[in-house]
């Protein structure tokens, strides 16, 4: 296979990744959305982050109820406190990473 084929594949993958991420922003600049739809869309980031958080805090096995991952839950508590007090995403992430690192070290 030639370098041209790899370059074409790379640009194709970049385009396929870029279009669904950028196209909604371009379309919403051109049209105005109804207030109900804007309110609905404003909840999406929080629900996506909550789903990702719950997936990392729970251990799923087929045929069983989900169980808690205790170290992750313990590391989440200080991150939650920092989040409530500061509302700074960088501080929340650093607190969570440091918390899980300390728990795994012990």
List the helices and strands and how they pair.
Layout lengths: L2 H28 L4 H8 L1 H14 E2 L7 E2 L1 H17 L2 H17 L1
Antiparallel strand pairs: 1-2
Helix pairs in contact: 4-5
Structure description:
The chain crosses the membrane at residues 40-60. The protein has a domain at 69-106. With 106 residues, the protein is mainly alpha-helical. The protein has helices at residues 3-30, 35-42, 44-57, 70-86, 89-105, and strands spanning 58-59, 67-68. It is extended, with a radius of gyration of 20 Å. Strands 1-2 form a two-stranded antiparallel ribbon.
Number of helices: 5
What is the helix fraction of residues, given as a range? Answer: over 70%
Order of helices and strands: HHHEEHH
Distance between the termini: 50 Å
Number-wise, the strands total 2
- For the CA atoms, what is the radius of gyration? 20 Å
Stretches where pLDDT is under 50 for at least 5 consecutive residues are: none
Shape: extended
Keywords: Membrane, Transmembrane, Transmembrane helix
Protein name: Branched-chain amino acid transporter AzlD
Organism: Enterococcus malodoratus ATCC 43197
Pfam families: AzlD (PF05437)
Nutshell version of this structure?
It contains 5 helices and 2 strands.
List keywords for this structure.
106 residues; mainly alpha; two-stranded antiparallel sheet
